[in-house]
Amino acid sequence: MSIWKKLFTEERTDEVDYYQEGVDLLRVAKYHDALVSFRLALKQTPNDTAVLQQIAITHTRIGMTDEAAKTYRQVLERDSNAAGAHYGLAFLLLRSGQRQDAERHLRSFLELAPTGADAERHIEHARQTLSELEAGAAVDGEP
């Protein structure tokens, strides 16, 4: 049951899974609604780096890249092994022309890379981008 249903119906029996609700809203490009849900999830579990990473992703999709970078850094302060935060921050740094910092985060991501089919496309993207950076080539997303 979503927060919106819970607010506007009389049925109030189950606790809302705000994290899952945020993921579902993010998937259908309802970014501002997703952000609300993730913030509510963060209230329930204030140190949850998975929630913070979803907030950073949502900020990126809304175009709030400074907030996204700040949030990824918060994740890395709490868990320096958070591969997703290294990945997301690397590409935000590239967009702002910070190649060396981006390379460092791409290397960290590749060292910590998760496994699985979904992860493989991110790993390949990181490898290709890092290779282009090391060769001194222009990279998509750079100014």
Q: Could you state the oligomeric state of the chains shown?
A: single chain
Task: Please tell me what the overall shape is.
Answer: elongated
What is the string of helix and strand elements? HHHHHHHH
Low-confidence stretches: 4-13
- The pLDDT mean sits at 89
Strand content: under 5%
Work out the helicity level.
over 70%
Q: Could you give the count of β-strands?
A: 0
Tally of helical segments: 8
Q: Tell me the distance between the termini.
A: 42 Å
Q: Give the tally of structural domains.
A: 2
Q: What is the makeup of the main sheet?
A: none
Q: Please identify the structural class as seen in this structure.
A: mainly alpha
Estimated radius of gyration: 17 Å
Short description:
This protein is mainly α. It has helices spanning 3-8, 18-27, 31-44, 49-62, 65-78, 83-95, 99-112, 117-134.
